[in-house]
Design brief:
Elements: H1 3-30, H2 36-42, H3 51-80, H4 82-102, H5 106-119, H6 122-133, H7 139-168, H8 170-190, H9 196-211, H10 224-242, H11 244-255, H12 261-290, H13 292-310, H14 316-330, H15 333-343, H16 350-378, H17 381-404
Helix pairs in contact: 1-6, 1-7, 1-8, 2-3, 3-4, 3-5, 3-16, 4-5, 4-6, 4-8, 6-16, 7-8, 7-12, 7-15, 10-15, 10-16, 10-17, 11-12, 12-13, 12-14, 13-14, 13-15, 13-17, 16-17
């Protein structure tokens, strides 16, 4: 078998394994998170009047810790190996889910979520590994597929989690998630190797250290392009999460008094994820062919207009259509950002780059619900969509002016 054929087979095998890895990771997370208020009240004895407060603390505890730790894990990935950091994250996340299944009090659940934030970092390592294995002409497709699978896991997870919680109780969901993440750990142990380019970079760094030739490590914050993409990642995550405090309530208000309201609300809520899972690989291919900055700006402006329009309908069906439409466009943004970062960063800093991106996205995910809650309280629920859409359109214009028009 020729070297070219071996190379083609290698990246395809890695992509297939990482797709399974991401599906397990994403679905495990989302089959638990939506049901935390129920877990707090039914299993952990939280008083009804305090459930919302505990839910907020439990939800945000992981974000805070992971935002701090992600750059640290990213730096260690560049010096110790990206595969090793993926193994670390998989194993510790498996432990965290197992602990979630045996906790007895809300305080213990908060501690578990903080530990989960400490353990996090699997997604940025998946991205870093794939960008080093993928042929340059297939980078957009690979990242689009990975984003689509990540989104698909977010749709499948709550459905599977609801069935498990009904049939076996919430604790079984945690144990199953622990098993899925441990399976991810085994995949990295036995099926994935450190990318050759990463091995060479670490060997060169070791040689320099032994010879006393300490080459200056690139300062990410002095690279305007990378810095701007991290800012984009923060704002896009904030815009996506800004809708979370009001979306379910808004859907219920539009639906009115209809049978199976919970099911209908859940279905409409998931339409954006379904659309994103379908279209993310297509956006990746489009970016590869037409330029990632151009596609990023296009996806942003279309998503921004869609979000703005989504605040207009006063009936459920038009809103549901726009929910699906927005999901189609939002799914094109993150793969483009990931591809730009991958194309404009050297092997020796890819771990840090995607670690910083993950940290930036966590900050945005924390800020979004707070801003959405404030806007909904002070101006009204419709205004949340207008604010989110306006910010996204402005961001698209900034990207277009800076990187496409220039």
């Amino acid at each position: 078998m020729s070297e070219e054929m071996k190379g083609n087979r290698s990246w395809k095998v890695v992509l297939a394994i990482l797709v399974c890895n991401i599906l397990f990771m994403s679905s495990s997370y989302t089959m638990i998170i939506p049901f935390l208020p129920l877990y707090l009240s039914s299993e952990l004895g939280a008083a009804p009047e305090h459930v919302n407060l505990w839910s907020g603390v439990v939800f945000s505890a992981s974000f805070v810790v992971s935002a701090v730790m992600a750059p640290i894990w990213g730096r260690m990935a560049d010096t110790r190996g990206k595969r090793l950091m993926a193994m670390r994250a998989s194993f510790l996340l498996a432990v965290s889910y197992f602990l979630g299944g045996i906790v007895q009090t809300p305080e213990e659940l908060v501690g578990m979520r903080m530990f989960q934030g400490f353990a996090s970092g699997l997604w940025p390592m998946d991205l870093a590994i794939m960008t080093l294995y993928a042929p340059p002409k297939k980078l957009g497709l690979c990242l689009g597929i990975m984003q689509g699978v990540m989104t698909a896991g977010g749709v499948v997870g709550p459905l599977f989690g609801g069935v498990l919680a009904t049939a076996f109780g919430m604790r079984m969901s945690f144990f199953l998630a622990a098993g899925a993440l441990f399976l991810n750990f085994l995949m990295f142990v036995f099926l994935i190797k450190e990318p050759p380019a990463s091995v060479q970079a670490m060997a060169e760094r070791k040689r320099q250290a032994e010879s006393g030739d300490k080459a200056a490590s690139p300062n990410i914050w002095r690279m305007p392009l990378l810095r701007n993409m991290l800012l984009c990642g923060t704002l896009v995550s904030m815009i996506i999460m800004i809708l979370q405090p009001v979306l379910t309530t808004y859907i219920a208000a539009l639906a009115g008094d209809i049978p199976n309201l919970v099911f209908v609300a859940g279905l409409v809520f998931s339409l954006g994820g379904i659309a994103g899972a379908i279209t993310a690989p297509l956006w990746g291919k489009l970016g590869q062919r037409n330029g990632f900055f151009r596609v990023m700006a296009l996806a942003m402006v279309c998503a921004g207009v869609g979000l703005f329009v989504q605040g207009i309908p006063d009936t459920l069906v038009p809103f549901a259509i726009m929910q699906f439409t927005c999901g189609m466009f939002l799914s094109g943004i993150h793969p483009a950002i990931n591809a730009v970062l991958a194309e404009n960063s050297s092997t020796e800093i890819k771990g840090r780059i995607f670690g910083y991106l993950f940290s930036a996205q966590q900050v945005g995910s924390m800020a979004g619900p707070i801003l959405g809650g404030v806007v909904a309280t002070c101006i009204g629920m419709h205004a949340v969509f207008y604010v989110a859409g306006s910010i996204m359109v402005l961001l698209s214009l900034a990207v277009w002016h800076k990187y496409v028009r220039a």
